[in-house]
């Protein structure tokens, strides 16, 4: 009996070994690229591409030899040897001046069209000397990632990009101070990109695209939308139907919006980051922010907003940073701070240069995660609450330019993480002792 069992399990072991051996053989072949390497056509295409560039830092010096899959910046499909990725992002240097020197310069050669399986193309931070995006890029049908940001490309964005029906990431961000700028008269080509999840056209001149919103609202998979410094002329108040409800991050700062905040925004309930600074928004902060349960970062600075902070902003349980600097907001912080102290998620609060008034609520002291509290240039008065010692994470505290006419509690000496303390142009009473600086 026991010997049969032994025999059975022995057989089983043997079979397993054969299978394992066979698998190992396959692995061995792949790992060593015994017969899988790039085709001559693709190698030639890459060499022609290299030929059209100047490369002062020798970043493409590894582009020699038979197997282009081994070259810097190239990845291939491990089964077919086809080039799938070309990543020539110029990110070796950290500062802009050094980066300029290591940039590849020249033209994007049409030989790229011979890379029939290219999924990922990153030419960011190089220097194509103001030339337009070649229309041929629209023929790289297999692309799912295209990054041409900060590459000194310019001119009209070719509608041919709308042929890239597999595209998930499109990054065309440019330096706002750069001579070369993208522009467009319409964005109708976005219709061809139903899988797009990430769109950044920051810095492009879109002032001629009057119905930009309808033209962007065709992207049902979009999760990140970056249109900062695009001269967008209006923030349309009406939108019949919100298509891009999966948005989680929106940056539309520094455009030319001069209207109240539209209501359709509040249907995008999964939004986590919302940056709208430096527009000319008017009106009040809508209490419809109550819908945005996921909101983590909200920046509405540099507008003409009036009225109070709606208490509801304090009730948002994921809120980490709130920036309302440079508006015309007024009222006290009592209801707002009360909500905040129950959530205790806030890390950064910047209310610089508004007309807020009243005394600082005790509840502020319960914000143990707060790192930065900047209340410069308001009309707060009275004392700093004793509870301030509870702000255990506080690094930056500014009350500059407020008529603070009470006293500074010794408990301020407990703020052991403090780096910046700005109490200038205030009206404090009382004395300062060593205790104030104890920790
Ligand atoms: C592409 O490369 C080939 C071979 O080096 C060259 O003949 C052709 O002029 C280049 N085309 C462009 C647009 O640079
Ligand atoms: C594109 O490249 C830039 C600069 O190299 C980088 O900061 C950015 O995150 C990239 N975009 C995407 C979508 O990966
Ligand atoms: C777009 O940029 C190009 C090149 O700078 C320029 O010739 C063209 O007039 C611009 N078009 C628009 C609509 O701004
Ligand atoms: C690509 O897009 C352009 C402009 O939208 C269009 O004229 C052209 O026919 C398209 N090319 C192909 C091969 O579909
Ligand atoms: C929503 O997006 C889909 C897919 O792109 C599109 O067919 C539809 O027309 C869009 N709806 C509106 C109202 O724009
Ligand atoms: C916003 O959502 C509400 C409720 O789900 C819906 O009735 C309304 O039509 C939506 N509005 C827009 C502009 O999509
Ligand atoms: C905030 O939440 C509290 C309960 O936690 C509630 O009493 C209060 O009404 C809410 N404030 C607003 C403005 O909705
Ligand atoms: C701020 O609002 C007050 C009224 O609340 C108004 O008198 C004042 O003109 C506004 N200031 C600016 C710069 O809009
Ligand atoms: C602040 O915390 C203290 C104790 O930790 C608690 O008694 C008080 O109710 C809290 N205040 C608010 C406004 O939540
Ligand atoms: C501080 O200023 C406020 C508002 O101007 C005033 O009501 C209060 O009496 C002042 N307190 C002291 C101690 O001067």
Automatic annotation (TrEMBL):
It comes from the Eukaryota. GO terms for cellular component: membrane. It is a single-pass type I membrane protein. The keyword Membrane applies. InterPro entries: Leu-rich_rpt, LRR_dom_sf, LRR_N_plant-typ, RLP23-like. Residues 1-31 form the signal peptide. The keyword Transcription does not apply. Residues 42-77 form the Leucine-rich repeat-containing N-terminal plant-type domain. It holds the Pfam family LRR_1. Its main location: membrane. Keywords: Glycoprotein, Leucine-rich repeat, Membrane, Receptor, Repeat, Signal, Transmembrane, Transmembrane helix. This is Probable leucine-rich repeat receptor-like protein kinase At1g35710. It comes from Herrania umbratica.
């Amino acid at each position: 009996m026991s010997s049969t069992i032994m025999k059975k399990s022995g057989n089983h072991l043997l079979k397993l070994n054969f299978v394992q051996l066979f698998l190992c053989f396959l692995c061995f072949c792949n790992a060593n690229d015994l017969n899988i390497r790039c085709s001559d056509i693709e190698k030639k295409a890459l060499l022609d591409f290299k030929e059209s560039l100047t490369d002062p830092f020798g970043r493409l010096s590894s582009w020699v030899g038979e197997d282009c899959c081994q070259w810097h910046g190239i990845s291939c499909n491990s089964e077919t040897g086809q080039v799938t990725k070309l990543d020539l992002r110029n990110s070796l240097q950290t500062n802009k001046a050094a980066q300029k020197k290591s940039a590849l310069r020249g033209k994007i050669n049409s030989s790229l069209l011979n890379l029939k399986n290219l999924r990922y193309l990153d030419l960011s931070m190089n220097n194509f000397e103001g030339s337009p995006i070649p229309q041929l890029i629209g023929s790289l049908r297999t692309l799912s990632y295209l990054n041409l940001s900060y590459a000194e490309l310019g001119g009209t964005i070719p509608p041919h990009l709308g042929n890239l029906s597999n595209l998930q990431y499109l990054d065309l961000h440019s330096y706002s101070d750069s001579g070369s700028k993208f522009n467009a008269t319409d964005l109708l080509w976005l219709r061809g990109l139903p899988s797009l999840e990430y769109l950044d056209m920051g810095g492009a001149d879109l002032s001629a695209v009057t119905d930009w919103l309808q033209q962007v609202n065709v992207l049902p998979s979009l999760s990140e939308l970056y249109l900062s410094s695009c001269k967008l002329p209006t923030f349309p108040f009406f939108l019949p139907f919100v298509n891009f409800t999966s948005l989680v991050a929106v940056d539309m700062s520094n455009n030319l919006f001069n209207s109240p905040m539209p209501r359709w925004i509040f249907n995008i309930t999964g939004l986590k980051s919302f940056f709208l600074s430096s527009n000319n928004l008017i009106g009040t902060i809508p209490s419809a922010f109550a819908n945005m349960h996921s909101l983590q970062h909200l920046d509405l600075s540099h507008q003409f907003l009036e009225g109070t902070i709606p208490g509801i902003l304090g009730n948002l349980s994921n809120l980490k940073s709130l920036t309302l600097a440079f508006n015309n907001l007024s009222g006290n912080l009592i209801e707002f701070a009360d909500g905040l102290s129950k959530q205790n998620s806030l890390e950064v609060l910047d209310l610089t240069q508004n007309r807020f008034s009243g005394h600082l609520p005790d509840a502020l002291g319960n914000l143990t995660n707060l790192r930065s509290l900047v209340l410069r240039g308001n009309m707060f008065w009275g004392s700093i609450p004793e509870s301030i010692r509870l702000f255990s994470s506080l690094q930056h505290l500014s009350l500059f330019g407020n008529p603070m006419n009470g006293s500074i509690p010794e408990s301020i000496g407990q703020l052991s993480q403090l780096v910046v303390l700005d109490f200038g142009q205030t009206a404090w009473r009382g004395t300062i002792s060593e205790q104030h600086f104890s920790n």
